[in-house]
């Protein structure tokens, strides 16, 4: 028989939303149980997203550096790219990080149940594993079931026609690769494979790749992708992929004309959908919008007061750090605290070459919000560290209010932009001004000096440009 087992706080999903929520809830004194259908903990991010993609990108840079350091006086011959070792490295990084989540659960006395959760009512759910099912009751629930790649008609996944997961895990390096979709996931993977020597074609349906970013930001990344041989076709509507056993022929339309391109693999990276179907939301009456995203308040609470939702299944950028942030707030809300989310300083990074990192508002977004803002820009070509690193491309741009010079946004394109952006996220978070940044002593020589220099530009008294 299926006798219910009583639980306290339950989290469905162990991705960056779920595992962080679980750890924080435990730290706040709750007894926490996580339900995860995958054998490995860590969700998309650790298993088949952020972490393995960055491992491949790192190795692809190492390979490029090894090949192209001759003008610095380091010439390598017979450089060997051992693809199975590359894949082994990716796997080992993933294993290490997912083990880390298991360690954190143990340390915080969090129980894990492996199986697929399905809601029954406001206080109970069922977990299915194979043929067995068990009912659990809960006091509070955090849903963090994440998202999955969208499939498009004409592109049935079959090993050659793959999603981002398939592309990360390819057992053979393709000579020719087609990526459908020029969003950040498509462009990051295009960049990595291009570095490895694969010829990549990006087919983008709209008139530009990386459409979330400003034109001058995208231009640098796009020029660099093209320099490494990536073919970028915009306004290309992908129609079908036909597998003839040796490869795939992709048909697309461009200006009403049919075109084809042949490849060893085709990756569909046109976006992701929330995992909110088939989890029993309707059993409880949890409301979603037209896209299937769960409606929540500023604490992550759904319309059912003891059930919360976080991460890729709620509105906003589908990013790991946003999921974790919401997870902490939901855990605090369950603990009775007054915490609410504030998305004013939310960073986003695209790990192409060079990296693109943004935080807060662009000039256009600030103006849309009725803010009277200015911007100041400083190029890495005037930064000694960047030049000595072979990385003179890109810039730092600050966006700040005209009257108070309060920083409300920033865009960085350049080496290590993903790390540099945090200084400016902190600036926004703490209400810092352009003067604050300009008066902060930055170590020399460092990439971070470009941030101080951009503040000097903002004050109208640049030293280094
Ligand atoms: P997920 O990480 O998707 O985790 C959800 C978990 O819930 C999964 O483990 C799943 O098995 C489990 N689950 C689902 N349904 C059930 C159920 N019914 N019962 C039990 N368990 C269930 N973001 C970044 O911020 N930076 C990056 O560099 C980045 N790179 C990416 C690269 C790629 C290739 C991809 C695909 C994504 C990338 N992302 C990146 C996005 C990031 O992975 C997601 O935003 C993040 O994983 C969302 O976290 P989450 O906790 O909401 O869900």
TrEMBL record:
NAD(+) binds at residues 181-188, 204, 271. Binds 1 FAD per subunit. The keyword Lipid metabolism does not apply. InterPro entries: Class-I_Pyr_Nuc-Dis_Oxidored, FAD/NAD-bd_sf, FAD/NAD-binding_dom, FAD/NAD-linked_Rdtase_dimer_sf, Lipoamide_DH, Pyr_nuc-diS_OxRdtase, Pyr_nucl-diS_OxRdtase_dimer, Pyr_OxRdtase_I_AS. Its EC number is 1.8.1.4. One of its GO terms (biological process) is 2-oxoglutarate metabolic process. GO terms for molecular function: dihydrolipoyl dehydrogenase (NADH) activity; flavin adenine dinucleotide binding. It is an enzyme of class 1 (oxidoreductase). Belongs to the class-I pyridine nucleotide-disulfide oxidoreductase family. This is Dihydrolipoyl dehydrogenase. It comes from Limosilactobacillus coleohominis 101-4-CHN. The gene is lpdA.
